[in-house]
Write a structure and sequence with these properties.
Elements: E1 2-5, H1 15-21, H2 24-37, E2 41-48, E3 53-60, H3 67-84, E4 91-96, H4 107-112, E5 117-126, E6 129-140, E7 143-148, E8 151-156, E9 160-165
Parallel strand pairs: 3-4
Antiparallel strand pairs: 1-4, 2-3, 5-6, 5-9, 6-7, 7-8
Length: about 170
């Protein structure tokens, strides 16, 4: 589900300046508390820049996200971003649910989706391999446990480049 806001926010020198200025960690820091106060988790942020910037927020909550939720969050967070103005240049804000192949970004995500299938890609090879697909077993310390074809694999969380649920 996507709620689109057609207005452009902010002013600047264009997409190149905006691309250089985006700090996802800062956006998470800014937006997570605001969304939590509304009863939502900020699952992920995606930003693309070309002729016009695009800031896409993926939100979630217990019981799922509706189109009305996306619209409400879009309106409130859009107004919040107008005031905070964390991004130079113009952009379109989209708010969406994370989908079936949601990104796993935190250790809590790996624990929450225990029992589900996931695809994990490491920054550097572990035993000659960078890509793993299997069932999430859970988290132990700072390691993600994955059952890959009946073998328990321990993946250091800090070495994970990207991980997503992999629905069957």
């Amino acid at each position: 589900m996507v709620a689109r806001v057609g207005r452009c926010l902010g002013l600047g020198d264009g997409p190149k300046q905006m691309a250089e200025a985006v700090d996802k960690a800062r956006l998470f820091e800014l937006l997570e508390p605001a969304l939590a106060a509304m009863g939502f988790e900020l699952a992920d942020i995606d930003a693309h820049f070309g002729r016009r910037g695009l800031l896409r927020l993926f939100i979630d909550r217990e019981g799922g996200v509706t189109l009305d939720d996306c619209q409400r969050v879009s309106e409130q967070i859009g107004a919040f971003l107008d005031v905070e103005d964390p991004l130079p240049g113009s952009y379109v804000l989209e708010v969406s649910s994370p989908g079936f192949d949601r990104r796993l970004r935190t250790l809590a995500h790996f624990e929450r989706f225990k029992g589900e299938n996931a695809k994990v890609e490491l920054r550097d090879a572990l035993d000659g391999r960078r890509r793993f697909t299997g069932k999430l077993v859970g988290v132990e310390g700072s390691e993600v446990l994955l059952d890959v074809d009946g073998e328990l694999v321990r993946l250091p969380f800090g070495d994970i480049a990207v991980a997503r649920l992999a629905p069957s």
